[in-house]
Amino acid sequence: MLFSSLEFVIFFSCVLGFLFVVRSNPVRKLFLLAASYYFYAYWDYRFLSLILLSTATDYMVGRALGRTRDVVKRKWLLAASLMVNLGLLGYFKYCNFFIETAAPLLLGLGLHAGTLDIILPVGISFYTFQTLSYTIDVYRRRMPVCENPLDFALFVAFFPQLVAGPIVRATHFLPQLRQATRLNSEDLYEGFRRFTFGLAKKVFLADRLAVYVDFVFANHALVDTPTMWLGVLGYTLQIYFDFSGYSDMAIGVARMMGYDLGENFNFPYLSRSFSEFWRRWHISLSSWVRDYLYIPLGGNRGTRLRTCVNLLVTMLVMGLWHGAAWTFVVWGGLHGFGLVVERVVLGREKNRPSRTPAGGLLGWGYTMFITVLGWVFFRAQGLAEAWVILEKLFVSGGGISWLHPFVIAVIAATVVMHGVRATARMDWLFEKRSWYTPAILLSLLWLTVVFYPTRFTPFIYFQF
Amino acid sequence: MATCWGGGLLFSFLFIWVVCSVFGNSITPPVWDEDLQIYVRKSGTTVHWRSEGWADIPVGPMGLDVNDAVLLESGVPCFALWGDSHVDALQVPSDERAVGLFNSGGPPVKVIAVGGGGLNVADYYFRIPRLQRKYPNIVGNVILLSGMADVIPGKTLECHSRFLPGPWRFEESLCAPTRLALKYAPLLSEMRLGFLQSLYSKLKNHDFRFVWGPETAVARPAVVSDDESFSYEEAWNYLLTALKREGRGRLAFIYIPPTPQPAGNVVRIQDPEAPLVKRFGVACAANGIDFVDLSRNFQDLYLKQGLFPRGFFNTAPGRGHLNVLGHRLVAKGVQELLKGSR
Questions:
Q1: What's the pTM?
Q2: Which domains are assigned to chain B?
């Protein structure tokens, strides 16, 4: 079920109505769990079994970890959880990628390797990482075991964040389930504010940019250089508005019910370095990868070379998390390269000298340039296509010219808004409780419903 | 806080009203036309078209562009250019439509456009004699075909007349606007509140689904009848004879192809309907009817100049309705047709 659909509005109104009437916490949680399973089954009920399997596995592993102090046993339990969760993820998401990659090798050995007909279950990467974080934290004794199966199942399947994040940590979410939060005007207001901003970002901006971006990328060999640039910049904003819009909606929906999911975006395109970018973009994933991959690999505790290798490996995995294709690996590699260059040239972040305005601008330019080029790989259907697009961007060539005024206007407005925020630190548009906030929210709502696209545009991050 | 929300609601309504007045398509109230026996746009209104191209079309009597209506009522000898939304041409300003471009050359016989979304030959069959009865100065009819489906029998398009086989016949069909539309459209149009109507129809036409997935697609009924136990030539002979009989003066056809069109890194040049177009041209010739196929002109526009006859600054190149370049080609086609040079 899409947050931007009428069905969701009706579904969520019913959920809110129930929470308003019922005060008993267990009943509310049971209802929320049922609603979450329905929310997921709305897409495809068959894949609910994967969520149930993942939930049952990590709940039982968690309890078993709580009962034993035997180090070897604990390791085996953790390995079991990793095998089930990563096994499911590996099969559904990466199986065909590995087969395709190995196909030339197998062909050389006289074996024919055909890909399998596998549907990628929506949100599998998100809930897998979420449950894994719980098990690893329990294994590390960083959090107590969750004894209540209802709480744990709801933590895994809570519908606002189930299919596209934010990836919520158990340490953050499980304590919120202990007592019922009464619906209150503060939460409803703030949740509605976040939801409306997200909805406008997704429906009014991202979906309308998508029409242009889809044409340009589908016809990249035909368009001229300015059109290609506008298409790539358009995608840079489309993916931001699409994903941060979804996160805003998820955070807003949860907030209206009295739950906090944390933040997932913080003006990433204002970043003046790659390390800053990853503290602002998809925060829940980057912090997950930092805590459960980068630091266990050694983080920045070893030599400079070792740190660079850790950074690269982490970002390659980050790329692969986004999709089972070499384009995503290259995208992750580019970001890893950016981080490594920063580390080599500027040293550790906390030791870097404070930035001058010119240095900040230079850092921003460098970060944005590689980020924008990275989106080419992220969006392209293959490495060959990405290469043609890059060639188009840098080798001036003729072709079809289409510079859509809406795309130009959105880019210009975004630049101005970011500029104002970066320089004056003004937050007037995002002011939480100003006298004019209702006017802004209702205007955005009108824009969204009046200019609701006629064609179906799924959220980009659903595919991950 | 309640005051803030009340004020916010008022402000937001004014905001969207201004935005839609500038960037939204307008609606025009439908009125019944006794002469044409159909619902047409109300005279004296203006169509503001924004979603594709950018034009403001003043509406005259019988829902025609006011320039065409003035010409028609002045008694000047005219040809009527019939067609679907490509002739209606809400996307381009009046003087940039094919008829506007043609008439700007000061020809002794003018051309007026009589178009409407989704019209086909069966619609023209009923409307040509009615219009010519009212306006004796219409000396002939030119029909613009934007696809061969318009002349293929057996189609059942809602709210449009039909050309049917076995036995060959025409059936008139029309959809009346709802009572709600008739009652409120004038007010909404007057106050530029078309966005409320579009919102209402979005809600009304939304297919709600609350059962769990996966969603199974339901096949739509075929637009073209499966019954093809007839020869096209036979059908067209009947069609052309009937149109000639019902209309006064010269009858001609102009065909515009859907190509050239970018389609995934290649520009599709070849019209998939080309063989059928050729056969229709032969049928026209056999019935003494002029037929102009603009396929070559459309192709050349791209092949020689890299330009597309369709698409606007706010829509994808090569797709959708005719832009001013496309209208220029049609105007040229009409010119050559009426000169008798083709």
A1: 0.91
A2: 24-202+225-339 (3.40.50.1110)
